[in-house]
Amino acid sequence: MTTPRSVDPFAGPPRLHGAARVGIRPGTELIHPLAATGARPLRFEVEGLPDGLQVDDEGVLRGVAPGERGVVPLAVRVTNVHGEASARVELVVGDTLALTPPMGWNSWNVFASEVTAEVVIRMADRMVETGMRDLGYAYVNIDDHWHAPCRETGGRPAANAETFPDGMAAVAEHVHARGLKLGIYSDAADRTCGGCFGSLGHEETDARTYAEWGVDLLKYDYCHAPANRAAAVARYTAMSRAVATSGRSIVFSVCEWGFRRPWQWAAQVGGSYWRTTPDIFDTFSWSILGVRGIARRNLRLGAYAGPGHWNDPDMLLVGNHGRGLATGVLRDPRTRRKLWTFSGISDAEALSHVTLWAMMAAPLLASHDLADSSDLDRALLMNPDVLAVNQDPLGVQARKVASAPGLWVLAKPLVDGSTAVSITNVGPMARRVRFPLDSLGLAGPVECTDLWEGGAPRQISEIEAHLARHDSVAYRCTPVPSGRLP
Ligand code: GLA
Asked: What CA dihedral angle connects 243, 24, 35 and 377, to 10 degrees?
């Protein structure tokens, strides 16, 4: 199998990662980690910061964004004993958030209805301790089941007093103190999928309360809501307006599972990303519950993705190994009876899953217990070169450029003129593959870097690989500047 190299986020010279373009609404609070790896201590300097914004010692931009719309260019420089790195980061003040696919963690796959404040805080801490934050993972998203049994008198939403004893604002405060952002979940009906109170008819109150708590992202589900598209558009519009005028920059995630073709309308109603399929389960299956089935559907929708509006093929399974409370078992939605159990995906399948999601410019939401990730889980989730492809500011979703039976070749153009290319063996047998790079239309000789295994760039005219069953390779290929030709 392709061997993903592990990168120690706390060693070596500085390197900057994460989003190079950051969307923020005028005059709202900004908490944004300038993701950087390298031996500590790292020293962050940012030129061009407008009044009201500072960078803290850990490289987190904090404060209030300018009140006027426009682009604020920031020159970021990070130094440590080994050297320095610099990058230009643009703060784009306006109505579009998520200018690159959101990266973070979500409670659902692994903890399902057992999410608690203690879990969320522990996961936020792990995102910092493991260095995930330094590679760009910024959101800590609480899914369903954070709710009190009912709303407060007066209608305000409230968190469950047993599982969130200090309330949601206290959780947000902890998450923000770690330089991370908090996500929450609700539903466009009177009940959520898990039977907690939903937001229908309470949109203004809920959005205002979330903003007061310090929420930075809302995943809005569609259980118990009417099947027709007009109703979905109306209900998502109502919540999106409430969120947009809440006084906070809250990313709005549309979750109606692709049933009403949200790629055709969700961006217009303020969605930053939308699920394209039903829930993922811990399998590589061709069915719509598995990695291959979901990827096959999502790959057809590339034309709809771009900065601020992404296709969401659901969360990452990495690290669950069949143990996820939500992804390990398929239940009958009515009786809750077990219909199927999943044993999890193989290591090669996990590598292909991350490769495909990175290439498809999908939101990267890890959703396993970060307290027990293996070295391999971390190598898969924390490869800076693979993540850079996902976060590329051009924001183009990869398209299939060739497919033979059992093989997918994807290409994703990148902002610097290079192209990311991946080959996935979706078939049942190991095989040797050769893919001529001239078919990508890259003029002249190209230099390619192996994104998973690393190493120096090599001048090649074809990608040649031996791929285990369900394994992938991924390269970044750049035309060789003419001055450097032999
Ligand atoms: C739906 C969503 C899931 C998760 C659950 C919570 O099934 O698609 O991602 O949010 O609801 O109940």
From this structure: 30
- Ligand 1 near 144 CB (within 6 A): yes
Residue minimizing CA distance to atom 1 of ligand 1: 193
Instruction: Tell whether ligand 1 has an atom less than 6 A from the beta carbon of residue 193.
Output: yes
Please name the fold of domain 103-390.
TIM Barrel (3.20.20)
Identity of the residue numbered 232: A
What end-to-end distance do the CA atoms of the chain give, in Å?
Answer: 34
Task: Report the atom number in ligand 1 closest to the C-alpha of 278.
Answer: 8
User: For 399-484, which CATH class?
Assistant: mainly beta
Largest CA distance in the chain: 77
Q: Which CATH class is domain 15-93?
A: mainly beta
CA 385 to chain centre: 15
Asked whether the predicted pLDDT for residue 101 surpasses 90, the reply is yes
pLDDT digits (tens, 9 = 90+) for 180-192: 999 999 999 999 9
Range list for CATH 3.20.20.70 in the chain: 103-390
Instruction: Name 78's Cβ contacts closer than 8 Å, sequence gap at least 6.
Output: 14, 16, 34, 36, 38, 42, 43, 44, 45, 59, 84, 85, 86
Q: Where in the chain is the domain with CATH 2.60.40.1180?
A: 399-484
pLDDT digits 0-9 by tens, 291-344: 999 999 999 999 999 999 999 999 999 999 999 999 999 998 889 899 999 999
Pocket lining: 195 vs ligand 1, CB cutoff 6 Å: no
Cα 94 to Cα 410: distance, rounded to the nearest angstrom: 32
Q: Is 91 exposed, middle or buried (0-12, 13-18, 19+ CB in 10 A)?
A: buried
Of 281, 285, 261, nearest to 271 by C-alpha is 261
Helical segments of 214-301, H only: 229-244, 291-299
Please pick, among 134, 144, 216, 221, the residue that the annotation labels catalytic: 221
Q: Would residue 279 show up in a list of annotated catalytic residues for this protein?
A: yes
Q: What is the pTM of this model?
A: 0.98
